[in-house]
Structure formats: structure tokens, C-alpha cells
Amino acid sequence: MTTAALGSRTLAHPARDAVRLEAVLHALSDPVRLSVVLDLAAADGELPCSYFDLPVTKSTTTHHFRVLRESGVVQQAYRGTAKMNALRRADLDALFPGLLDSVLGAARLQADRLEHV
């Protein structure tokens, strides 16, 4: 595990070599978490947790971000009072070439298909 720290607040993240395919797939399998990853991919940078208007309680939102962080899908760091989130695209692309783009592309196609049903 590695940690991201600013001040006294640290968050544990798996090192690149510790990221497991099954954990990434599990994290991406939830629609709420997948929507977060889609937003992060579109932003191409950091977004605060407060950016996301998720259809779940605050405690469940915290759980979803923890799953994404602990699986190695996102990097989180405190910037002042905000917890910032960034997609670990470089790590995921190096470990699982094409996976992230395939999943995100399939999610977008599904959203378009369901929108027209």
C-alpha cells in the first residue's frame, strides 16, 4: 500500500503492482461507481467528491469512493478541506491495456441505447 498525504490526513492506495484485475472489475461493476469513473475520465483531471451528485446517502457515497480507491481505480488526496479524486488511468492502462477504454466505451454505448428505449 502507498499513501497520499497532505498535512496529517493520509489515504491508503494499492501500489501499481498490487492492483488486481478482479478488484478493478468489481469496482467498475457497480452503476454508481461506473458513473463516477465516467465523470473522472471525461474531466481528465481531479474532481472533488462534492462534484458528484450521486443517488445514494453520504455514507454510501463514501463507501463507493473507498471501493474505487482500494481497488486502484482512483487516486484520492486531500486539498484543504476537499477530497480530490483522479482516475489512475496510467496505472490501469499499463496493467490492463485497453480495459478501461473498453469498459467506458461499452458504458457509453449502453447509456445511449437505454436512452432510446
From TrEMBL:
GO terms, molecular function: DNA-binding transcription factor activity
Gene3D superfamilies xref list: Winged helix-like DNA-binding domain superfamily/Winged helix DNA-binding domain
InterPro entries tied to this protein: HTH_ArsR_DNA-bd_dom, WH-like_DNA-bd_sf, WH_DNA-bd_sf
Domain spans labelled HTH arsR-type: 13-107
Chain segments annotated as coiled-coil in the UniProt record: none
Protein name, per record: Transcriptional regulator
Species for this entry: Streptomyces sulfonofaciens
